[in-house]
Structure prediction request, 131 residues.
Amino acid sequence: MATTTRKYNYSRQREVIYRLLAGTTAHPTAEWLHLQARRELPQLSLGTVYRNLQILAEQGRVRELQFGADQTRYDAMMEPHHHFICTGCGSMTDVFLQRDLPLDRLGGIPDGAAVESMHLELFGKCSACFG
Prediction:
């Protein structure tokens, strides 16, 4: 993920949004963050949440996770990891895999190319939906 060199002034709204996002592993939507942040900032608009999430992403502090045209979620965990998405309830869980996998040797990688990063999305049923 590329970060920007653009400078942004301090924003209390941005820090509240970031704190909420960093404090959960639920990979929330902007709408969820908006509802939570309004407890502390009652005048906060959904548009302000979206703008600040974009700035946080540009700064490399959060990651946007796209799941279809209407399913964007956010993650403040910037360490390399993957995601398990439940096809039943839509919950998302962080997955940490062995980091020294020889990806270049798995096949299908063009000759002369080198894998620099990857993100796997694993789909299935979580334990609550499976049973």
About this structure: Residues 82-130 form a domain with the Dna Ligase; domain 1 fold (CATH 3.30.1490).
